Amino acid sequence: MAAGARAVVLREKDLPRPRRRALGEAIVPLLAAVRGVLVVASDAVLAGELGARVHLAAHDPPPGPGAAGGAGRSCHDLASLGAAAREGVAYATLSPIFPSASKPGYGPCLGIPGLREATAATRLPVYALGGVLPVNAGDCLRAGAAGVAVMGAVMASPSPERATRDLLDALGAAGPEA
């Protein structure tokens, strides 16, 4: 957040629920201070308790009515993107765009052509995920993505703040037309 990120996904699915909730409660005021958004992965109840959005995995059941701020959905192809739009989510992530060390075995990689095709086929805001780095983040915007979502590029970095700044700089350099 110090580097400019304004959305954080609480994805610690391996934590016991009380610890996950405590972590969320610690993050909420930090995000509120920068007008940011907390997104909770796969737990609509916890998202509601924290006043956060929920992001649903590809296999999670559809969101209930009134999901705080609009639910999101993980998608991996055009068919799942179409299904997400029909179930009424507010946005989708689409992955993998590029090879990813964080989630090996997902694929095939859609690449920029696949991302461009997907964004043209839906009205949903689509966030590119999977192997997104500063060198390709701008290409994702130019292909129609509403933004990018990252895990490994920030989490594996010796300086998560620097990695975040580099990504945001690359997105900014893509220009307002992106």
**How many discrete domains?**
1
Total helices: the number is 7
Chain-averaged pLDDT:
90
> Would you count the extended β strands for me?
7
Which CATH top level class fits? Alpha Beta
Q: How does the major sheet shape up? A: 7 strands, parallel
CATH architecture: Alpha-Beta Barrel
* N- and C-termini, Cα separation: 23 Å
Proportion of residues in helical segments: 25-40%
Task: Give the class from helix and strand content and strand pairing.
Answer: alpha/beta
Which ranges are low-confidence, i.e. pLDDT below 50, for 5 or more consecutive residues? none
Order of strands side by side in the largest beta sheet?
1-2-3-4-5-6-7
> Could you give the order of the helices and strands?
EHEHEEHEHEHEHH
Overall, the morphology is: globular
What is the CATH T-level topology?
TIM Barrel
CATH superfamily: Aldolase class I
In what range is the share of β-strand residues?
15-25%
Q: How big is the Rg?
A: 16 Å
